[in-house]
Amino acid sequence: MFRHTSDLQFEAKPEKPDALYAMKLQELIGGAFGEMTVTMQYLFQGWNCRMEGKYKDLIMDIATEEIGHVEMIATMVGRLLEGAPDDVTAEAVKEPAVAAVVGGMNPQQAIVGGGGALPVDSAGTPWNGKYIVASGNLMADFRANVAAESQGRLQTARLYHMTDDPGVKAMLQFNLARDTVHQNEWLAAIEQLQEDGLEGPVAPDDLFEEENQAHARTHWHLSDGGEADQGPWASGQAPDGRHSFEYMADPAALGGKASAPAPRPHQYVTSRTDASGGPHVPGQARGVAGRIKDTLQ
Ligand SMILES: [Fe+2]
Ligand SMILES: [Fe+2]
Fold first, then answer.
1. Residues less than 5 Å from ion ligand 2, measured at CB
2. Overall pTM surpassing 0.90 (yes/no)
3. Annotated region Disordered: where (predicted)?
4. Residue 89, pLDDT score
């Protein structure tokens, strides 16, 4: 059961409307690393968590907080759009002052949202459920959570420098702080999973005997740049404690030619051979004879 309270988690009051900034702020609502993504990511991770206790409770607490962040930023967007013209004619846009206000406005915020926030990013792209990661493997998921909070904080920091509005800045200072806490919490949870013996540093913690062991420690030098051997990933102990890295300066291909199978006639693929292995005859799929041949195949 979820229960809603009408108070915002933190104040979301701009000093004055700014339709252009409202569109920019949409990134933090419906962007790939926005609040809708972390909300749904953590909710599904929590609902799918197969272990009652501290991990599930951590996930559900933060998930529920993120719903409140969607609410705060959506409220802020609505207030930034206050008074934004929704009936601007081409003539009005010629006025420099009006053009400045409407110039960067997302017209859908007026037409579809009636002056409110939308579940879209700053370019108007709809939020997408494929943005979220919820696999049931807490190590793999918590790493995705660190990545999401990192990208989210990065974008919040960039948006922080794009406004002088003290009300907007105050809200973003809160968001930056929560993104800091959440990054630290997921990093701590990753450590805790290992200390509790639930997961190892490599996910999933299995198949190390069966995987191709000759290739479980090598860096393949495959680009022009020649300095990748100068990091700790190229030699010495790997973080998993099982392997020591090795730098392959001149790796050779291990497989044969990457050739695709011969095409079927109705795929109309340019080829010298057909699926029977015989020479490809252009237009053979056409005509009665071709159709009979195809049917028999
Ligand atoms: Fe958040
Ligand atoms: Fe967060």
1. 182
2. no
3. 222-297
4. 46
